[in-house]
Amino acid sequence: MNRKTIAGVLFIWIMLCISVVAWAQPRGPFVISPQVNADKTVTFRYLAPLAKVVKLSGQFLKSPVEMTRDSIGIWSTTVGPITPDIYPYSFQVDGVTVMDPANVAYFPNERLKASLVDVPGDTPLIHAMRDVPHGNVTYEYYPSVEGSTGTVVVYTPPGYNKASSTKYPVFYLISGTTDTEETFFKVGRTNLILDNLIAEGKAKPMIVVMPYGNPMARIAEQQGKSKPADQFGRDSEDAIKRAKLFETDLVNHVIPYIEKNYRAIPNKDNRAIGGFSRGGGQTLRTAFGNMDKFSWICCYSAYLFTPEMEGTFKHIGENPEATNKQLKLLWVSVGDEDFLYKSTVEFLDYLKSKNINHKSLITPGGHTWMNVKTYVAETAQLLFK
């Protein structure tokens, strides 16, 4: 064996040793978080050896809870018992809010950075994974406004791929301010809610289309520009402008794309529209501005002010007989601790004063996705019947 061969072998051996040593380098202690216990308490852990203060924040808490550090730098706390549901939570590490790195379940949002904890019920909740036939969830790209490429999440019901000739009604479902097209899927568990209701014969099989509610931000991002700031005021000129852009996207781009690429029944009696928070306002504006497109309207934790109803949408209240004939469902729901509760109730009072048929549901709690899941489950049972 010559010197070059020996040197080559030695080099390979050294590199293998380095690789083995590198591979064997410690990655820190394994952290389990969150840990849901049998008594519905939950233990949260976060590895931060150099942190001075770590707190747990979550929608199951009235205020953040300080965590305790162990000898190797893992901070932990156990809270509860927690009422079964899915909740967002995060850690505050020396004043900085972070997600839980030990948890793969997260809250899709432009700004909110939170993880998700699922506390199961003793009997499976309506959004739980059950032993029933399941539909499919597909991510789609479509040509959108101002030359941008839009994103949408689509749920198709169990049996969709086998029943190749069957057509289905469509529910267009819009999430809230700074949420993404994934939020109704990953946080709202709309796919599992529909799977369970369809299996029980409580909901008709339907396609659910979950678009991104902020096309202005998507356009800016794809053009290499900064995303616009959060809209100021729900009835401001900027908010109405953005809602109009979304309406244009939904009516002129999303619906045609869905009806071309999915077996959707293409008429108003088989189209429903619904949304939460900002998405609820977009729902009302889009539906009231396109009464020939939708027969079913589901507004979750949202409203329109009376001046806008008597201005832009005066046709809704001026001719209630025509409105009631055109709509098969107008649903409005809100939590009694929601910061939009008062305005939503005023909107309900307006509908009553104009004799516009509607259904309403006031639930306990605030402006949360725990309430949204309830609203989706309730309205899904009414649609297309």
What can you see in these coordinates?
This protein is of the alpha/beta class and 385 residues long. It has 2 domains: 35-119, Sandwich (Immunoglobulin-like); 136-380, Rossmann fold, CATH 3.40.50. It is built from 11 helices and 17 strands. The protein has helices spanning 3-23, 183-186, 190-199, 215-222, 237-261, 278-288, 306-310, 314-318, 320-326, 341-353, 369-380; strands at 35-36, 42-47, 54-58, 65-66, 68-69, 74-79, 85-93, 96-98, 115-119, 136-143, 149-156, 170-174, 207-211, 271-276, 296-300, 329-335, 359-363. Strands 10-11-13-12-14-15-16-17 form an 8-stranded mixed beta sheet, with helices on both faces. Strands 3, 4, 7, 8 and 9 form a 5-stranded antiparallel beta sheet that branches. Strands 1-2-6-5 form a 4-stranded antiparallel beta sheet, with no helix packed on it. Strand 14 (271-276), helix 6 (278-288) and strand 15 form a beta-alpha-beta unit. Helix 3 (190-199) runs parallel beside helix 11 and helix 5 crosses helix 6 (278-288). The longest helix is centred in the middle third of the chain and has 25 residues, at 237-261. It is globular. Mean pLDDT is 90; it is low at 3-12 and 16-26.
Largest sheet properties: 8 strands, mixed
Tally of helical runs: 11
Q: What order do the strands of the largest sheet run in, or round the barrel if closed?
A: 10-11-13-12-14-15-16-17
What is the CATH architecture term of the largest domain?
3-Layer(aba) Sandwich
Write down the secondary-structure element order: HEEEEEEEEEEEEHHEHHEHEHHHEHEH
- Based on helices, strands and strand pairing, what is the structural class? alpha/beta
Number of DSSP strand runs? 17
Q: What is the assigned CATH homologous superfamily of the largest domain?
A: Alpha/Beta hydrolase fold, catalytic domain
CATH topology call of the largest domain: Rossmann fold
| Structural domains: how many | 2
End-to-end Cα distance, whole Å, is 84 Å
CATH class of the largest domain: Alpha Beta
Mean pLDDT comes to: 90
Overall, the morphology is globular
Q: What fraction, in percent, of the residue positions are helical?
A: 25-40%
Strand content: 15-25%
If you compute it from the alpha carbons, what radius of gyration comes out, rounded to the nearest whole angstrom? 25 Å
